[in-house]
Amino acid sequence: MPTCPPASSLAALTEVTGTVPQARSIIGVDLGGTKLAVALVDDTLGVIAKTVGGSATESAEACLDNLYRRLDEAVGEYGPVDAIGVGTASMINFRAGRIVLSTNLPLRDVPLRDLLHERYGVPVVVDNDANVACLAEFRYGAGIGTTEMVMLTLGTGIGGGIITNGHLYRGASGAAAELGHMVIEADGPRCQGACPNYGCLEVYASGEAMGRLARDEARAMPESTLGQALASGEEVDGPLLSRLALDGDPGAIAVLHDVGRKLGIGIANIVNIFNPELVVIGGGAAQAADILLDPARQVVAERALYPERDEVRIVPAHHGQDAGVLGAAALAIIELFPDQGAPRR
Ligand SMILES: [Zn+2]
Prior knowledge:
This protein has helices spanning 10-17, 60-78, 112-120, 129-140, 201-205, 207-220, 225-231, 238-246, 250-274, 290-303, 308-311, 323-336, and strands at residues 25-31, 35-42, 47-54, 83-88, 91-93, 98-101, 108-110, 124-128, 149-154, 158-164, 167-168, 278-282, 313-316. By secondary structure, the protein is α/β, with parallel strands linked by helices. The strands form three sheets. A five-stranded mixed beta sheet has the order 3-2-1-4-8, sandwiched between helices. The chain is globular, with a radius of gyration of 20 Å. It binds zinc ion. Zinc ion binds next to loops.
């Protein structure tokens, strides 16, 4: 994984790494509901510098001012850049470069691509965070060498990305690949947020779902580690569940096993529909890796059709917390400089 050296300038970076940065420099922006990350990368997605701060969510104006301030600082410190890529937790009209709606940010109908282009005078590309994470894995991570790939990002919800014939599939208006809203229980619980559906995959296998299921287990088994954590006032959520499972706690492993089997039902549908070579599972809620993925692989082996069930590999994402900024920069490289960007690990 590319790392972020403590460089304060390109010259300093050259001294630190002994390498000369590539000819182009690209800014990647991960504009999320709580976090705003900005990274300067070269055109092989090597990180030159990165900063992470909070998002401003009081108003659209405050949110954009915060973004401008951080970009002004990056451009001021590192000089002119060649392009800006933005990934944001929002519904996007990709062709128009416009944020249509955002659940966790106060942004609605914002022409972000044009606003940034006018301010910085460089090409800008904007897409949703799940698509950019998928691109980062496809071109620079777990998906190198594939042409048919699907990614699920397990976070508060579940984001999806679909690569078919080597290209991101966006649908008619850029809203495709909402794979977290695939129904896996027709009469299941109501879905989260603005989704009017019931029994979506997101209800069973997102970070929110993991926290809810962990608390159910804690209440049902008060003597368990989860039960004791709840009784002591500790926050019982997805991250705690993953940590306990990785430490070998049997109660936490059992909950993640059930989550993994639900995830597997969703992946079996994906495998039958898209026949991918690779399904990549990323996001903060996927930290338990194989504890979660082994039950999912088992369900896919049991339920998906032959031969695609035997052809697909289900793997953890290569990029961790940097997936958003790296993916945003990857989006700019892929869309604006399609002949650039040799794969790297
Ligand atoms: Zn849903």
